[in-house]
Design goal:
By secondary structure, the chain is an alpha+beta fold. It has two domains: 77 residues, no CATH class; 230 residues, 2-Layer Sandwich (BirA Bifunctional Protein, domain 2), CATH 3.30.930. It is 38% helix and 19% strand. The chain contains eleven helices and nine strands. The protein has a seven-stranded mixed sheet, with helices on both faces. Helix 2 runs antiparallel to helix 4. The longest helix has 30 residues. The chain is elongated. Bound molecules: phenylalanine. The site of phenylalanine (PHE) has 10 residues, from strand 8 and strand 9.
């Protein structure tokens, strides 16, 4: 009986191929699948079969019925001009493609760079793999000087001296001045690397925006005014506080704090109850560094600053965890459509 059912399926599918209109399809369907059709006739013999065969026939019969039903529907559709996709409604809204956008760090860097270019700054970049000469020596940080320990460095050679991942963008100060003469105003956005244990506010890989200005009669007030304009451009009407600090390539060196965005100076957990947030390091370019740039410290002076970009992005958007920024997690990134 199995072969008879299979035969019926094959001959019906074959017959369908040769039909010319929907009425003929209807007629064939009734002839085969109708209540008194051929399939029903075959199945009416099931009770005469040995019990072991019955179940198998039942399954086969329902498969064949399904196959043929689809074939009849398809054939009818062909003649009526629609097809079996008649459930498709072309007026439904489509699935919107997701649209790419800038990463919040990139967007911040672009906006900041634009601020400085309107002040007349050029934009430069430099290599992420640096030599110790540029990352340290020329910046007045000699070998074996304890100040090298201020930066936890990834060295790329086993001797741990010559080649490294740059720990800051300051080496580009020197590289830029190899091909430019004062007056020089330049900002340098870029990726830097530090061998640190990561936590919510430290990552091994982050971005800095370096600034360098060299001109006649530049004073620390020029530096302070520039930074204040930048912070207020970025965060609105914040207050700024200057503290003395130490970086070997500037003298004097300063660290710049900004009034806390969250509590406006009253004290909260973000500013550790101080009312102030540490924002960046800066200072007047050290005479030794000016000489390394082949700039005469008697004629020219300069200032430099290094902005930690992720820190600023976190404050700007209220992001509690720096590592989210490099996670590539779409659920996080999609919140920053600019
Ligand atoms: N390069 C310093 C750092 O990595 C920041 C800095 C830049 C400080 C320029 C002073 C002047 O922390």
């Amino acid at each position: 009986m199995t072969s008879e059912i299979e035969q019926l399926q094959a001959s019906t599918l074959d017959a369908l191929q040769h039909l010319q209109d929907a009425a003929a399809v209807d007629a064939l369907e009734i002839n085969i699948l109708g209540r008194k059709g051929k399939l029903a006739a075959l199945l009416s013999r099931i009770p005469t079969l040995p019990p072991a065969e019955r179940a198998g026939i039942g399954t086969l019969a329902s498969e064949v019925k399904q196959t043929l039903q689809l074939a009849f529907n398809g054939a009818r559709g062909k003649f009526s001009g629609t097809n079996d996709h008649s459930h498709f409604d072309p007026t439904w809204p489509g699935v919107a493609p997701s649209i790419g956008h800038l990463h919040p760090v990139t967007a911040f860097v672009e906006r900041s760079v634009q601020f400085f270019t309107t002040l007349g700054y050029a934009v430069a970049d430099g290599p992420e793999v640096e030599t110790a000469a540029y990352n340290f020596d020329k910046l007045n940080i000699p070998a074996n000087h304890p100040a090298r320990d201020l930066w936890d460095t990834y060295y790329l050679n086993p001797e741990r001296d010559g080649i490294l991942m740059r720990t800051h963008t300051s080496p580009v100060q020197l590289r830029y001045m190899e091909t430019h003469k004062p007056p020089a105003y330049v900002v340098v956005p870029g990726r830097v690397f530090r061998h640190e244990a990561t936590d919510a506010s430290h990552d091994t890989n982050f971005s800095m925006l370096e600034g360098l200005a060299i001109d006649r009669d530049l004073h620390i007030t020029d530096l302070i005014g520039t930074l204040k304009a930048f912070l207020q451009h970025t965060f609105g009407p914040v207050k700024m506080r200057i503290r003395p600090s130490y970086f070997p390539f500037v003298e004097p060196g300063i660290e710049v704090d900004m009034s806390c965005l969250i509590c406006h100076g009253k004290g909260c957990s973000v500013c550790k109850q101080t009312g102030w947030l540490e924002m960046l390091g800066a200072g007047m370019v050290h005479p030794v560094v000016l000489k390394n740039m082949k700039v005469d410290p008697k004629k020219y002076s300069g200032f430099a600053f290094g902005i930690g970009v992720e820190r600023m992005v976190m404050l700007l958007h209220g992001i509690p965890e720096v590592r989210l920024l490099l996670s590539g997690d779409q659920r996080f990134l999609e919140q920053f459509h600019y």
